[in-house]
Amino acid sequence: MTELETEVKLLKKELHDQKKIHDRLDIAIEKLTDVSNSIHRMLAVHEEKLTRQEEAIFQ
């Protein structure tokens, strides 16, 4: 095997490894986005509950 063929094979392996890393990063970003959205909804619900409690106290 020539040096060029070896380099090409190494580059192909590196490219494949990079693709796996990118795929895993995409999945992680999707999960973080889901968590962020869930936290946002949860905070909105709690804020609404606090607002209702404050209104009940001051009425």
Structure description:
It is a single chain. The protein is an all-alpha fold. Helix content is 95%, strand content 0%. The protein has a domain of 28 residues. The protein contains one helix and no strands. The longest helix has 56 residues. The model has no long low-confidence stretch (mean pLDDT 97).
Features:
1 helix; 59 residues; mainly alpha; single chain; 95% helix
Helix content: over 70%
Largest sheet: none
Q: How many distinct beta strands? A: 0
Order of helices and strands: H
The Cα radius of gyration reads 25 Å
Strand pairing plus helix content: what structural class? Answer: mainly alpha
Shape: rod-shaped
Per DSSP, the total helix count is 1
- Note the gap between the termini: 85 Å
- Given as residue ranges, the uncertain stretches (5+ residues, pLDDT < 50) are none
Mean pLDDT: 97
Strand content: under 5%
Protein name: DUF7201 domain-containing protein
InterPro entries: DUF7201
Pfam family, one: DUF7201
Domain DUF7201: 5-56
Write the SSE topology.
Blueprint: H1 3-58
Domain DUF7201: 5-56
Protein name: DUF7201 domain-containing protein
Organism: marine metagenome
Give a quick rundown of the structure.
This protein has 59 residues and is mainly α.
